[in-house]
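re: that chain from earlier
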Amino acid sequence: MRSKYLLVFSLVSLLILSTGLICKAAQEEIVIGLGSDALYLDPHQQNETTTNMLVSHIFESLVEATADLEIVPALAERWIRYSDTDWIFHLRKGVKFHNGNDLTAEDVKFSIERVRTTIIANMVAPIAQVNIIDDYTIEIITAEPYAVLLRDLRGIKIVDKDYVSAVGDEYFNLNPIGTGPYKLQEWIKADHITFVANQDYWGKIPEFKQATFKPITNVATRTAALLSGDVDFIVNVPVRDTIRIERSPNLELIRKPSLRLIYLHVDGWRDRSPTIDLPVNPLQDLRVRQAIYYGINIDAIVKSVMNGHAYPAEQYVQSTHLGYLDGIERYPYNPEKARELLKEAGYPDGFTVTLDSPNDRYVNDALVAQAIASQLAKIGIKIELNLMPKSLFFDYVRPGDKSSLVMSGWSATSGGAGRMYEVFLITRDKYEGYGGSNRGHYSNSEFDRMVLKASSTASIEERDEYLQEATKIALNDLALIPLYYQEDLLAKKDFIDYTPRVDNYILAHEMRRNK
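^ sequence. v structure.
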């Protein structure tokens, strides 16, 4: 009898031990549900937040940013600014790419020069020369004084020159090699990306040995995956699921104001606009752009569509950022004023225009676009919606040749309005490296002058003054119509210790297990 009890006790003990080992093994891995997939894994082929965040597991830059966006050393362990235009960077020794190749100054120079021919060329536009001093020392010279070079360098991921040159861009995109804390194990597009910890990493090896990111575009499915235990962490929590998550055991809701502005890009600077069947483009008239602004009830959208999880925007960056103007107020919702302006501009019966918008990139983006269409119909502007997934949207709208009105978003993670203005609002095809995503073909020579002056000063204070002047000009022209700032909504299981970042990057190597 005693042996029978001993056998049962041993089996129970083994079961408890094995269960504990299974739980422990499970907690060596983390599964994160995203709203969308990466567009590329080549870090130089796109500038989109989800893509940037995912490639940051594989690749690193000379400098990185903390959760509060403080610039800190990364592949460069230190740097010296010898003059307003001359910088020397000293690389860490002993850093290896995932294939075993050593990181050297050749890789840094190659990466910077490679970016010059990509969609993110504006990041290196201020750089005039890159000179190799020795294997672990590199000199970067800017054409003019440039106050935010370090923040730009954060966006330039360093790739292995020998590897990229040998395999070519297409293969490299699917089989990326970096120096980061994780290596790519598998990428099944639209299903999952799995990373495994880089055991030879120069820094702290991630606690989670495997991190899998799943693009779950359907918001209800994403919440269900968290509640069922299929994933451990989700982003872009549906606004109507927040209370349900807060009341669920072993789950935690994280909410914080976002830097991400949702806005309308208006094609107001061409004689003809591609989706408006009129002999003259009505969006060229400032009164028409003003009518659109007056005709959108953003408070109703925040309340009813975003369930209160957003903040009306009156300009293009928040008060903490360079280029912010004190005393600016939103246009109040005033459909009567909007109709008067349309009549004054010669469009008493309105007109028809297509609104391009993603339907899986931003929180409730399709619903917001539908609400805007409904509201503008009340002032006589008929909106035809062209909704598409993120995987198609950015390449569709970037050239600006198909769009009249675009709803999109921008997160000013560089700490100011400068990058947004350089990408979206400087006159297109006039200055090398600038204006590549100027979808509305905005052109104002004084605005350009202010932004270029902001990009050619070593003084942060002067940069702020120039960007404020640029903001004033762009707002007067309504180059962009600001809508609202999102609220970042995240949810996680309680075994995860995580500090949310200002830029809303979800980095598995910054996560810990609660003890």
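The domain at 258-487 is CATH 3.10.105.10 (Dipeptide-binding Protein; domain 3).
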